[in-house]
């Protein structure tokens, strides 16, 4: 014990004696552990942790697909037929998302997401409740009526984790429900961002039996051993039969099936996988640096080791001494790493939450951290004790003799150190190139023509309370226009600074509600041969002026377009080009091809063509038809559009941030009818759209900077050591007439050689590794020389700064001192 | 050629000062071969470092020819040293990674001399020191005497007016030492002013003048027999 304490005391003293080495080693370890732990935590929370149900890889989402291949909502009869006939599935369920107020015990209304599901929803997922039970699949819709299952969040936050909650009545919207169960906190299916979710069984209404009434999201569990492709093929076959059975309905024949986990993780999965590679690189760089530092340290202490050995120290004793030092460094590095990991996660939390649905899971993972700390210590110990072991085994006389000539490391060790630094620099360049390419992608995406003016524009998104009602209003309904939309618009237009305002179902780049509609060009069988669906948008007059979408031909909607006047539509360039041919303004469309339909949109005139406004940045706009909300009568098939999610777009002469609070307040005054989802400026919306690229770029930059810092620390360490070792030589050179600038240049030249070697290898490696980020690039080539040159300059600059300090120290060496040290 | 007036050199030591040279007065004429002797710690090497302009931190007057060294800044002193002084060290101080020829070329590489001219000068020196066959060897492949020969060749290649040698034979056996001292005598006879520091009485016989130092004070100078100082250093 005393020996151990002595070892610790001596190790501590040794580290204090070489603060440069100690700080570099601890920082390297801390950066390596911290960055890697933070990233592993993100990866672990998002990718590696499965859905909280048995055999999560067999859970899929399914549904009919739209023109762009995306899975959309399906009708109840279709889903039921798939469930009854598909052999690939163990079971198929469905759900729809609605928004209600849930009253807590005080009677306070709390916003909550109500997932209305099929009775078999939980049994299909094989999900077990934390308390109570879930729905009874055999009892059907009627047997489960009036029951509710709470999420862990709702139980904890709204009901204070009341252990006697089961059997109590809760008020959800206008109805009362009996609480039958509480789900565990990890359960987040279908999807929930804030966890305020409750599950009830979807009540049955007669209109749900219409096959062309697609409003349900399908979710299923594959049988063991069935692939997604096989399931997709089988469902498409079944759907093909259904479509043939009901030719008048023009049903889609394609059904999409997608892994549920893939869908949740979504577009960021490739980014996260690329980042896993980045973690590995940073880790490698940190390890290489620790190895280099330890080798240097050992080399510098060979004489000490030799003296100890000459004085009779056993080999084991010497090795133990160095082991203690390495452990001390490892522990300090681990502690620093923990701090860095916390900081990283705190910095990243905002963007992670914005882009990952499962971010609620992301908290530091202790297993990961422990593993990293152990690995770091192991690497420090290996690189610290192997040279010590070698030195302790060497003939002390030889080491002492060699030491007398001021020699430190052997040529081989120096070469190894140089190689490690070159490797670190090369790996840093690889990360820098990838990060640079993503930065250029972000820049390019921001320069993409969007067909409208996003500046000075505010977008507010809101849902109808209770969600989409797939039925036309009955005669007693009040027109939402007169009670809600028109007054709201009038109030917003009165806000000082507001130039114009309008409602749209989906403003460009907002990805709000996508309505896909079958259509035909009246009197043009040729165009109808490629019978296809089109993006249908509904707008109020003034929308184009507000968005500043350019009118290319014809006219915009105006106040003359009302209920009773000739129904008109405006199409985008893509639609006109693809379907209307010459004289597009003389064409008429049928936007409701269903024979049983009852809509004015069965015969509409095209009166204008506007510029394309893509929904996804950097991708071409889909063909789009805009209808005028003011022309749709109360009883029209399309009237329910009003109860969909709607967006208010407002153009202001002031900075848009100024009017955000006012708009939020005006909307919240109407919260009896509508739930406000978001109020933000269009540039904020675009920032959000660039989410996965921004997240990937931000993470990659963190890695790249960490890598560069570690590599620079390594370069600094190597040169400092080298200067120390070359003190005598530098003294001789100065004594022989070398100027101090000569010495400065000499050390910087040494650094430059390493930097150039690192750059050459790094550029070569980056040539191959950039393909990992290829799927994220836009508007920049995979092998973009500008990026490579720019990041190379950055790396060289950082490298030279790191080298300047030891070089300057070398130039300040006093020849007298250097020669006397001899 | 060299005039030292009242040279003091001390080091800070805790709250006090450690004096290594006290009130040194010395004139060295061109062509002299001066030997500085004295026990360890007497200030021999410190004096040599001051003469070689390796040390800046002293007080007094130092005239090198017409130039007041004490008034020159660091860069001017470095220029003067590069132009006029050559140094030979006890432990040779050859650069291990450079060949014999490259080591000899080193002082020239710090002057703006064209490469071709430098090569010619190195070839001449190699020839003169009879080391042509060894020009591509590294210091580790040479004996101590040969290494010192390279050290001297390196010191004289730029034809310095003053050659300073700090225990030049300290690490050599007697035969090698004799050869080196003969070489110094030869250089001196050719006109090079030499100042050597040595413990060896034998080496001192090669010189034309001997100066004795003790505890930083100048005890005696064979050129000025009238200078005899007391044991505590004062005349």
Kindly describe this structure.
The complex is a heterodimer of chains A (822) and B (235). Chain A has 822 residues and is α+β, with helices and mostly antiparallel strands. Chain A contains 25 helices and 22 strands. In chain A, strands 13, 14, 15, 16, 17, 18, 19 and 20 form an eight-stranded mixed sheet that branches. A six-stranded mixed barrel of chain A has the order 2-3-8-5-7-6. Chain A has a four-stranded antiparallel sheet with strand order 12-21-11-22. In chain A, a hairpin with a 2-residue loop joins strand 6 and strand 7 (175-182). In chain A, helix 2 packs antiparallel against helix 21 (691-725), helix 9 (268-300) runs parallel beside helix 12 and helix 23 packs antiparallel against helix 24. The two termini of chain A are 39 Å apart. With 235 residues, chain B is α/β, with parallel strands linked by helices. Helices cover 32% and strands 27% of the residues of chain B. Chain B contains seven helices and ten strands. In chain B, helix 3 (100-109) runs parallel beside helix 5 (144-156) and helix 5 runs parallel beside helix 6 (174-189). Chain A binds chain B through residues 407, 728-729, 731-739, 742, 815-816, 819-820, 822, and chain B through 45, 49, 52, 54-55, 75, 78, 81-82, 87, 89, 91, 93, 95-96, 106-107, 110-111, 154, 158.
Summarize the structure.
The complex is a heterodimer of chains A (822) and B (235). Chain A is of the alpha+beta class.
Strand content of chain B: 25-35%
Structure annotation, total helices of chain A: 25
Elements of chain B, N to C (H/E): EEEHEEHEHHHEHEHEE
- What is the alpha-carbon Rg of chain B in Å? 18 Å
Specify Rg of chain A, calculated over alpha carbons.
Answer: 34 Å
The low-pLDDT segments of chain B are 230-235
Which class do the helix and strand fractions of chain A yield? alpha+beta
**Helix content range of chain A:** 40-55%
Chains forming the largest contact: A-B, 18 and 21 residues
What is the straight-line distance between the termini of chain B? 25 Å
Percent of residues in β-strands of chain A: 15-25%
């Amino acid at each position: 014990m005393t020996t151990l304490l002595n070892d610790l005391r001596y190790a501590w003293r040794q580290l204090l004696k070489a603060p440069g080495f100690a700080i570099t080693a601890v920082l390297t370890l801390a950066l390596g552990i911290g960055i890697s732990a933070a990233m592993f935590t993100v990866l672990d929370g998002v990718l590696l942790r499965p859905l909280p149900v048995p055999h999560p890889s067999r859970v899929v989402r399914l549904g009919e697909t739209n023109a762009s291949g995306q899975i959309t909502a399906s009708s109840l009869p279709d889903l039921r037929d798939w469930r009854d006939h598909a052999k690939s599935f163990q079971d198929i369920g469905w759900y729809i998302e609605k928004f209600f107020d849930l009253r807590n015990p005080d009677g306070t209304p709390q916003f909550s997401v109500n997932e209305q599901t099929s009775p078999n929803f939980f049994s299909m997922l094989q999900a077990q409740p934390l308390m109570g039970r879930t729905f009874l699949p055999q009892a059907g819709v009627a047997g489960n009526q009036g029951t509710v299952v709470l999420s862990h969040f709702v139980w904890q936050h709204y009901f204070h984790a009341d252990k006697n909650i089961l059997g109590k009545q809760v008020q959800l919207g206008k109805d009362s429900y009996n609480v039958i169960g509480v789900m565990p906190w990890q359960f987040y299916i279908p999807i929930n961002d804030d966890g305020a979710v409750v599950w009830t069984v979807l009540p049955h209404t007669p209109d749900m039996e219409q096959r062309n009434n697609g409003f349900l999201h399908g979710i299923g569990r594959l049988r063991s051993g069935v692939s997604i492709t096989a399931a997709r093929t089988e469902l498409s076959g079944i759907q093909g039969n259904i479509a043939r059975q009901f030719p008048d309905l023009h049903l889609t024949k394609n059904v999409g099936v997608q892994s549920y986990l893939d869908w949740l993780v979504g577009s960021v999965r490739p980014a996260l996988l690329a980042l896993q590679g980045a973690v590995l690189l940073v880790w490698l760089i940190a390890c290489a640096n620790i190895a280099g530092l330890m080798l240097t340290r050992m080399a510098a202490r060979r004489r000490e080791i030799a003296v100890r050995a000459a004085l009779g120290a056993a080999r084991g004793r010497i090795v133990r001494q160095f082991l203690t030092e390495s452990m001390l460094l490892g522990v300090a590095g681990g502690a620093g790493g923990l701090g860095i990991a916390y900081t990283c996660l705190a910095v990243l939390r905002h963007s992670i939450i914005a882009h990952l649905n499962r971010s609620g899971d992301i908290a530091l993972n202790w297993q990961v951290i422990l593993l990293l700390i152990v690995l770091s210590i192991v690497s420090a110990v290996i690189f610290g004790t192997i040279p010590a072991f070698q030195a302790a085994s060497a003939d002390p006389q030889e080491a002492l003799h060699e030491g007398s000539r001021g020699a430190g490391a052997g040529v081989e060790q120096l070469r190894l150190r140089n190689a490690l630094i070159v490797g670190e620099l090369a790996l840093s360049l690889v990360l820098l190139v990838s990060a640079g390419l993503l930065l250029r992608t972000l820049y390019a995406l921001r320069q993409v023509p969007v067909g409208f003016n996003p500046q000075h524009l505010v977008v507010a998104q809101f849902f109808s309370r209770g969600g989409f009602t797939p039925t036309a209003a009955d005669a007693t309904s009040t027109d939402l226009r007169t009670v809600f939309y028109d007054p709201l618009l009038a109030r917003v237009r009165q806000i000082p600074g507001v130039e114009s305002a309008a409602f749209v179902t989906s403003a460009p780049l907002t990805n709000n509600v996508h309505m896909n509609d079958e259509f035909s060009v009246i009197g043009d069988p040729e165009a109808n041969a490629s019978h296809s669906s089109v993006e249908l948008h509904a707008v109020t007059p003034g929308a184009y002026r507000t968005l500043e979408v350019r009118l290319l031909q014809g006219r915009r909607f105006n106040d003359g377009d009302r209920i009773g006047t000739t129904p008109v539509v405006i199409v985008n360039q893509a639609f006109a080009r693809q379907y209307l041919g010459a004289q597009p303004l003389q064409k008429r469309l049928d936007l409701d091809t269903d024979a049983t339909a009852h809509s004015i949109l069965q015969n509409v005139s095209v009166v204008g063509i506007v510029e394309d406004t893509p929904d996804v940045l950097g991708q071409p706009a889909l063909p789009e038809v805009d209808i005028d909300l003011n022309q749709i009568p109360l009883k029209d098939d399309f009237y329910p559009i009003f109860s969909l999610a709607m967006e208010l777009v407002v153009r202001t002469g002031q900075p848009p941030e100024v009017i955000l609070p006012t708009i939020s307040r005006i909307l919240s005054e109407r919260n009896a009818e509508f739930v406000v989802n978001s109020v933000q400026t269009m540039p904020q919306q675009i920032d959000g759209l660039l989410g996965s690229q921004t997240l990937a770029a931000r993470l990659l930059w963190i890695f790249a900077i960490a890598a560069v810092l570690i590599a620079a620390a390594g370069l600094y360490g190597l040169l400092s050591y080298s200067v120390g070792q070359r003190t005598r030589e530098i003294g001789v050179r100065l004594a022989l007439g070398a100027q101090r600038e000569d010495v400065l240049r000499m050390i910087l030249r040494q650094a430059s050689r390493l930097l150039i070697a690192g750059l050459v290898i790094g550029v070569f490696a980056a040539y191959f590794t950039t393909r990992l980020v290829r799927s994220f690039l836009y508007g920049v080539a995979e092998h973009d020389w500008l990026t490579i040159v720019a990041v190379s300059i950055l790396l060289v600059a950082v490298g030279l700064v790191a080298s300047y300090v030891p070089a300057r120290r070398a130039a300040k060496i006093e020849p007298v001192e250097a020669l006397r040290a001899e | 050629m060299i005039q030292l007036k009242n040279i003091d050199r001390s080091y800070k030591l805790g709250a006090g000062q450690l004096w290594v040279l006290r009130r040194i007065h010395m004139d060295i004429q061109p062509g002299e071969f001066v030997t500085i002797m004295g026990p360890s710690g007497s200030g021999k090497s410190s004096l040599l470092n001051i003469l070689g302009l390796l040390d800046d931190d002293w007080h007094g007057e130092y005239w090198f020819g017409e130039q007041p060294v004490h008034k020159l800044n660091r860069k001017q002193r470095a220029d003067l040293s590069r132009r006029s002084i050559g140094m030979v060290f006890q432990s040779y101080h050859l650069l291990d990674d450079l060949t014999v020829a490259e080591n000899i070329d080193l002082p020239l590489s710090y002057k703006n001399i064209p490469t071709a001219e430098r090569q010619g000068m190195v070839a001449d020196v190699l020839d003169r020191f009879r080391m042509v066959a060894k020009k591509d060897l590294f210091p580790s492949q040479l004996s101590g005497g040969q290494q010192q020969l390279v050290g001297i060749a390196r010191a004289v290649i730029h034809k310095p007016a003053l050659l300073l040698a700090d225990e030049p034979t300290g690490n050599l056996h007697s035969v090698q030492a004799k050869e080196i001292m003969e070489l110094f005598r030869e250089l001196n006879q050719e006109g090079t002013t030499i100042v050597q520091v040595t413990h060896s009485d034998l080496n001192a016989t090669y010189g034309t003048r001997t100066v004795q130092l003790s505890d930083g004070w100048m005890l005696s100078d064979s050129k000025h027999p009238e200078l005899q100082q007391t044991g505590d250093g004062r005349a």
